[in-house]
């Protein structure tokens, strides 16, 4: 069910949780459900950009308000389907067994930024993956990835072979497969739980992007980073919207959102923000006493190439089995990113 709030006048001094709110009354206010910590880049930068874009596209007729902690990350898909909120972000790896097409962008070995990967993600979805209908039940409005994920550990890891035997928090999807191939024992907990998982010594490390050094305060509990160029994987996310919420908007507003916000437009802007917050996380690491980045050696990269190749072959086979021209889709991602 759509949950619009008709505003009859501007509420002076109202505590809109997101920057960029139009300085006049909106006709429709969407409820955003966010599972990230309050200061995380998702809340500090991504949702404000979304609100800015929908306000600009609709001349202020549509805005949104942010609500934190309505449900944990794995429950966001059901939350939006049920109409408990209008818009959210999901991480595909939390939905075990549901998403196959989204694994394509998670594969290790792509060269390029999160912005390039997010644009490639939307384009390959539109060209090859949308008929899989994996986001059935919600309206898909953008796709994006985080930057290359690295290994963050309590104790130093300075070579690939030291990963075997470690207890590593994994996100699911390709990230979990790669960790298993490296000999790690995977522990699945949502991203907001990584700090306490490490602080309680329930895990030796986590695989996440550099953004998490600041966003999830890993500089405090995992002072070491083992960095592989291109990363161990790229996490895949979607912006999703309640279908009734969108259907109940006036047709002209629907057209404005489709034309100016949804799809590649929003995917590009969110990917760009992830590049920014990844750099902030790297800077935070370099500025924090006791934190260190250990770079993979040439021998490490040679050993990882076999794991990478096996994972690519596995995912492409899964897509082929679903009727997708997997090699063409994979080539498209590489081409878009290489030429972005």
Structure notes:
There is one protein chain. This protein is an alpha/beta fold and 340 residues long. It has two domains: 28-146 and 235-277, Bacterial extracellular solute-binding protein, family 7 (D-Maltodextrin-Binding Protein, domain 2, 3-Layer(aba) Sandwich), CATH 3.40.190.170; 150-233 and 287-338, 3-Layer(aba) Sandwich (D-Maltodextrin-Binding Protein, domain 2), CATH 3.40.190.170. Helices cover 42% and strands 16% of the residues. The chain contains 13 helices and eleven strands. The strands form two sheets. A six-stranded mixed sheet has the order 7-6-8-5-9-11. α1 links the parallel β1 and β2 (62-68). The longest helix is centred in the C-terminal third of the chain and has 24 residues, at 264-287. The chain is globular. The two termini are 39 Å apart.
How is this fold's topology laid out?
Blueprint: E1 28-34, H1 41-57, E2 62-68, H2 76-82, E3 87-91, H3 103-106, H4 114-129, E4 139-145, E5 150-153, E6 167-170, H5 173-181, E7 185-188, H6 194-199, E8 205-208, H7 212-215, H8 218-221, E9 224-227, E10 236-241, H9 243-247, H10 251-260, H11 264-287, E11 292-295, H12 298-321, H13 326-338
Parallel strand pairs: 1-2, 1-3, 6-7, 6-8, 9-11
Antiparallel strand pairs: 3-10, 4-10, 5-8, 5-9
Structural class: alpha/beta
Beta-strand proportion = 15-25%
- The number of helices is 13
The CATH superfamily label of the largest domain reads Bacterial extracellular solute-binding protein, family 7
Share of helix, binned: 40-55%
The overall pLDDT, averaged over residues, is 92
Give the tags:
340 residues; alpha/beta; D-Maltodextrin-Binding Protein, domain 2; 2 domains; 6-stranded mixed sheet; 5-stranded mixed sheet; 16% strand; globular; disordered N terminus
